[in-house]
Amino acid sequence: MKDLKVDALVVGGGIAGMQAALDLGDQGFQVALVEREPSIGGKMITLSKVFPTLDCCSCITTPKMSAVAHHPNIKLLTYCEVESIQENEKGFAVATVQKPRYVDEATCTGCRLCEYACPITVPSSFDRGLGSYRAIRVPFSTAVPQIAVLDMDNCILCGKCEKACPVDAVVLSQQPEPFTIHATAIILATGFELNELGAKKEYGAAKLPNVIDPLMMERFLSPTGPYGRVLRPGDGMEPTTIAYVQCAGSRDKTLGIEYCSRVCCMYAIKQAMLISGALPMAEITIYYMDIRTFGKGYEQFYQNAKAMGVEFVRGKVASIHEDEKHNPIVKMELTEEGRIIERTHDLVVLSLGMIPAVSSSGFGLVPASDGFISVPAPNASPTVTERPGIFVTGTAGGPMDIVDSIVTAGSAASEASAYIRSKTMIAESQSEVAYA
Amino acid sequence: MATQQATPSRGEILKRLREQHAETFARTQALLKEQKRIEQVICSAIRETAKTVPQIAEEVGMPAPEVLWYVASFKKYGMLVEKGMCGDYPLYQKVEKK
Q1: Angle between helices A264-278 and A298-307 (to 10 degrees)
Q2: What DSSP string runs through A180-220?
Q3: CATH dotted code for A4-99+176-191+357-426
Q4: pLDDT, tens digit, for every residue of B49-97?
Q5: How far is CA A377 from the centre of its chain?
Q6: What is the pLDDT of residues A311-367, one digit of tens each?
Q7: Domains of chain B from N-terminus onward
Q8: Are the Cβ atoms of B25 and A235 closer than 8 angstroms?
Q9: A179 Cβ under 8 Å from any chain B Cβ
Q10: Contacts of residue B53 in chain A, CB cutoff 8 Å?
């Protein structure tokens, strides 16, 4: 792979990274977007619907994915890892590695015949391990690019994919290929991960089959989910009583996560409303300490959920255990009444907090106290990092919802645009002085 | 994009990959054998009669979460279909190949 020279490099192909790349590309800048997964789309493409409008997530995300892939000013580089960033007088030299797909990107048509021929079934990371895919697969139905990837760690080299491929696109000789991206500015859109399901031992330590994380529920609620409907993973039962435990992975000193993750109240309310639609007879309870509905239309959304019959119970959940039928039992203190109760549910969702997906130090940045990328002036310049020329957008900078991720993408693109123009003007004036 | 290296033979490529992934290769071979066995027992359990996940789990002697994972996988790849409900549980039946 040849080295690239671009105006801006965007690291991360989630909603924030895609939006920043599009905003810069539309202004005429040459942009490279690097994504470590085989497809762009990030967390958002795995979600069912967005709050508070309940618009389909795919309907918002897939046009942007397609726009990025077909934009004349954007070079899309999927399945690539950023190794290091070196600064020089012209900007940054970013050492990057193209991981081997073992499939020729130019030839593969995404027909999936290789996937159907492959005999090995493995847990699908797209479905949080609850669904499956094959060792060679197109990552998901709306993946961009629609190109298969072979997971060599789960391959037995049986050759069935090679025989099934009608265009001979399987290329087992591929190897990791390093290359360098020269960029004037960098936008970090490296996103978030959920805190571990088993982080809080009192909540079952990930050993209770019917205690799940919210991204699993997103997949259940999605038409392309692992079961095609809402079932509990313990035994495939359609749940009739479902509970949400708020602040299950944030605002908790014992976990070292003292901050509020900002989106948990709203996604719990959204999922409760969607479950009400999918399972009209289900009783849904949200156990909360505070409900934080800060955005436009969010409070009305909360009131609508209450009007629909979602039960909100104020208190702090102390522990979760299960009965002999693997039904989770929630033990909690009702803080307003000062008494302790126990309730049994079919399924419990832990509203886990957000944590950074990657370490800031890899980009030569000192992380903030919460571990996310630090911004020295969060009120005046919320997307400008301490390192000139490097900007941050989306949840790489801290917990935020999709609306704010898109807003900060525009902000980061604008800051990067101004920075690139100023660098270009300085370079031009220096060359004029030299000429004179 | 990652490209082909200078024309080693297919045998050399396979040999190199087997050496590079020796540990996972052995594990995956064992996994394939086990998956084939489980596919056979689950599919034979639901060949004649549609059953729920707990019913299948009891019949084949496997944990219900594991059975559900296989059932979801078989459904995705068109090997079985849902056949209504039994109480709160969907029923699954094997699709016979035409």
Answers
A1: 40
A2: EEEEEEEEE---EEEPPTTSSGGGTTT--TTEE-HHHHHHH
A3: 3.50.50.60
A4: 999 999 999 999 999 999 999 999 999 999 999 999 999 999 999 998 7
A5: 25
A6: 999 999 999 999 999 999 999 999 989 999 999 999 999 999 999 999 888 898 989
A7: 14-94 (1.10.10.10)
A8: no
A9: no
A10: 235-237
Q: Which of A286, A291, A265 is nearest to A348 (CA)?
A: A286
Chain B residue at shortest CA distance from A77: B1
Please tell me the distance in Å from A128's CA to the nearest CA on chain B: 12
Cβ of A176 within 8 Å of Cβ of B24? The answer is: no
Stretch A230-248: mean pLDDT, rounded? 97
Q: Which of A119, A227, A235 sits opposite B32 (nearest CB)?
A: A119
Query: In this model, does residue A205 exceed pLDDT 90?
Result: no
CB within 8 Å: B72 and A226: yes
Partner residue opposite B53 with nearest CB, options A116, A154, A235: A235
User: What is the ipTM for the molecules in this complex?
Assistant: 0.93
Residue B98 is predicted with a pLDDT of 65
pLDDT in tens, A83-95: 999 999 889 999 9
Q: From B79, which residue of chain A is nearest by alpha-carbon distance?
A: A116
**Mutation site for A-interface testing, chosen from B10, B20, B24, B28 by largest number of A Cβ within 10 Å:** B28
A-chain residues within 8 Å CB-CB of B24?
152-154
* A232 to chain B: closest CA residue: B65
- Looking at the domain that runs over A196-353, which CATH code has it been given? 3.50.50.60
Q: How confident is the model at residue B2 (pLDDT cuts 50, 70, 90)?
A: low
The letter for the amino acid at B89 is Y
pLDDT confidence of residue A85: 95
Asked if A212 and A198 count as a contact pair (C-beta separation under 8 A), the reply is no
The answer to whether residue A427 scores a pLDDT higher than 80 is no
The sign of the torsion formed by the CA atoms of A31, A37, A42, A45 equals positive
Which chain B residues contact residue A177 at CB under 8 A? Answer: 1-3
Q: How confident is residue A192, by pLDDT bands cut at 50, 70 and 90?
A: very high
Decide if A172 touches B, using CB distance below 8 A: yes
Give the pLDDT confidence score for residue A2 in this predicted structure.
Answer: 86
Residues in chain A: 436
Given this model, what pLDDT does residue A40 score? 98
Q: Which two tokens stand for residue A310?
A: 């979602």
Mean pLDDT of A260-287: 97
Gap from B94 CA to chain A (nearest CA, Å):
16
Decide if A336 touches B, using CB distance below 8 A: no
Give tens-digit pLDDT for A161-176: 999 999 999 999 999 9
- Comparing A4-99+176-191+357-426 with A196-353, is the CATH topology the same? yes
Q: Which residues of A84-117 are buried (b: 16+ CB within 10 A; e: fewer)?
A: ebeeeeebbebebbbbbbbbbbeebeebbebbeb
Contact A235/B5, CB-based, under 8 Å? no
Sequence letter at residue A353: G
* Three-state DSSP class for residue A103: strand
